[in-house]
Every structure is written in structure tokens, then in C-alpha cells.
Amino acid sequence: MILAIGFAVFLVYAFPGYMSNDSYDQLREARTGLFTDGNPPLMAIEWWVLDRIIAGPVLMLLLQSTLFLGGLYVLMQKILEKRAAAWCAIGILLFPPVMTPMAVIWKDSQMAAYLMAGLAALVQPRLKIRLIGLGLLAAACLMRHNAVAAAAPMVAILFEWRGPIAWWKRLGLFIAAGLFAVGALFGFAKIIGARHITLTPMFHDLMGMIAFSDDQTDDEIRAQLPGIRVAVDEHIQQQARTTFAMRGARRVLYGDFKIFEPPGTQADLDAFHDAWLAMLKRQPRAYIEAHWDMFRDVLGIDDVPRAHVWDLFYERDEQQEMMEHSASWSRAQQYMARAFSWLAGATPLFRPYVYALVALLLLAIACRDRLTLALFTSGLLYELSFMPAFAEHDYRYSHWMITTVVIACVILFIQRRRGANA
């Protein structure tokens, strides 16, 4: 009853599921059957099936939220009796920084759902359930290219075949889990015939290194970019700094402020790669500074990351007809979204760096068991995986770290309270 009522509260805010352009692209692939590896093919297959039962996002919302809540409830039963575990699971789900991304049909939310279900299965006493947990974690890795950073630590720290595993074997398990996850991601895309999409931070890297290097003339910069068509006639470095500050990975190749002309051939791509590699060797400091400048935004150090409360059913009017999905906000949804936005502006609840600092502090002074170690490590490594990727400053990228830190803090609080009462 506790779980049902709490889940109903979640649906009051989330029903029938919010969507963005990413969601729209994923649904379009599901309906056309033209899969790409730019979006997770597994998610498109899921939606292909569910959309034929009820069109639109509602069944995807129910899938990701029930997996997430079910995994939370089972996990909390490891340390609490059923009633208390239900209260904790609902409390964590309804905690606004955790709840808001779970209301949106994103690969990030799907990944979090499979990670949570896999984590809960991984700590069960029966080997058969633990093996199912490995399968759920593999599914999570098919949702995002960097999900391996979240899943591999949990496998390495928590998985046991029959009994305890030595630390050096766990290190090998970590490496094996990472290699398997990466192989599964690309192998699955090949099996279903997904069209390859080139996803690389190389173009943004080049712009970032130009922007953060010492002052250079246009001739000096052009000399470092052989074979690359520069879209700026003069003051290249100044334009690179302006475009970089505007954020947006696409701006480097498209729009009024672009720095380079898009590559049209394999030779063009090779020229970008050679220039990127050569500049990285010459400008390692500029590379690090550029990535840290972007990563600060992901952490929310200067401002709350983008789309911390996403409550749109579609981004563009023309998407509505294709989605076969017409929804409007209830008053409850409007009030809740306003309340969450106020919390984001008036409190540090939606600032990812706060959770990162808490995780680092508790790792040093309070973490004494493998479960909390796995949670903290999984969240922190996943967050760090966005630094080399030149990620946009979307709040959803920090959702898994925030979720793991909240769960680990709850577990540590319960452990300390029991220790004090013993």
C-alpha cells in the first residue's frame, strides 16, 4: 500500500511522461524501424513493442519508473524490514532531484532504471538472481555509451560467484566488465543493423584548445590545422573563445558562430583527427582547462545545470502529430513543477557538485561496507566520465550520481543509528 500510494504521487507529477527532442528522435526510430547507434537501439526496440500496445510515452514511463522503484525497494530490504524499506524507497523516488529526470523518457532515465534493478539483483543471496543482475546491468550499458563507468564498479565490488573474491580478482572483474560492456554496446548495434553515427568530441576539443591556448595569430592557428576548412576569416582565436563560451557542441560546425566547416569526406575527418592529436600533444594544458570549464557547468558550480525540471510533453508543435500524443498539464503538475524550480533556485538541492563533495567526504570518513562503496564509486566514476566527453551541461547527466549518493547516505544513516542504539 505504501509503494502504491507513493507511486501514484509520482504519476500525478509525471503522467503520461514528458518528452524532449531526444525522446522524439528515439520514438521516430522505434516507429520507422530505422535504428542508429546515435540513440540506444535497445530503447528503440522497447518502444517499438510498447508503442504498439499504447501509443506514446506512457508505457515507457511505467517501465522505467517501476524498474527503478522496484529495485530501490528490494535493495532497501537488505537493511530494513518491508514497511520501512517501502517508506525509504518511496522517499528516495519522490526526492525532487531524483524524481524529475525519472518523469522524462530519456535514455538516462532508462539507464538509471536498469542500473537500480541490476544493483538490487546483484546483492541477493541466490546466484541465479545475481546473474540476472548482470544481465540488467548489461542492458543499462546498452542505454548510454558511458554507462560502463556506472556498472563496472558495481560488478567489481559486489558480484560474487560462490563466495568472497580476492581484491586482485575484483580488479580483473572490473576490467572484464568494462570490456564486456563496451563490446556488448557495439556488438548489439551491429546485430540489429543500426546505422553508424559519428559521435566524437574531437571538433569541440579543437575549438576548446584554440580558445584556452596562449594568444596566437590567425596564421599560427591555421598552420596547426592543415587540411581543415576554417569558417572564420580573421580573429580565429577570439571567435573560438566566443563560441566556446556560448556552449553547444553543434555551434563549432553549424550556425552563425561556427569555427570549422563540417567534414564532407573521410579525408576531412582524417585531417581533423591528425590536427586534434598534434594539438593535444602541444597544448595539454589548454585541453584540460577547456574540459574543466565545461565540466564545471555539468557539476553546477556556477549555475544550476540545464533542464533540471523538464516538464514539456514535446518541444516543437509539429512533433505532436507524429507522436500521436496530445497531453496538457494538470494543476497539480504545474504547481509541482513550480515548486521544484523554486527549490532549484533557492536551495542547493539541484547542484550536482554538492553531492560529489558529500560522496568524497563520506568515502573518506564513513564508508565501511561494500554496498555503499559500490554506490559512491559508481556515481562518482559515471560523473567523471562526462569530463573527457565534453558533455553539455544537462542536469540529467548527474542524475545517477545524485541518486547513488542519496541512497548511500540513507544506508549510512541507518547503519549509524543502529550502531548508536546497540
Mean pLDDT reading: 89
Unreliable segments (pLDDT under 50, ≥5 consecutive)?
A: none
Secondary-structure class: mainly alpha
Number of E strands:
0
Count of all domains: 2
Helix content: 55-70%
Largest sheet: none
DSSP summary: helix tally: 20
Overall morphology:
globular
Distance between the termini: 31 Å
- The radius of gyration over CA amounts to 23 Å
Strand content: under 5%
Order of helices and strands: HHHHHHHHHHHHHHHHHHHH
Overview of the molecule:
The protein is mainly alpha-helical. It has helices at 2-14, 21-32, 41-51, 58-76, 82-94, 96-102, 107-122, 127-141, 148-158, 167-191, 202-212, 218-223, 236-246, 266-282, 284-299, 317-323, 331-346, 352-365, 370-384, 399-421. It folds into two domains: 2-192 and 313-350, no CATH class; 202-299, no CATH class. Helix 18 (352-365) packs parallel to helix 20 (399-421) and helix 19 (370-384) packs antiparallel against helix 20 (399-421). The longest helix is centred in the middle third of the chain and has 25 residues, at 167-191. The two termini are 31 Å apart.
What's the helix and strand layout?
Layout: H1 2-14, H2 21-32, H3 41-51, H4 58-76, H5 82-94, H6 96-102, H7 107-122, H8 127-141, H9 148-158, H10 167-191, H11 202-212, H12 218-223, H13 236-246, H14 266-282, H15 284-299, H16 317-323, H17 331-346, H18 352-365, H19 370-384, H20 399-421
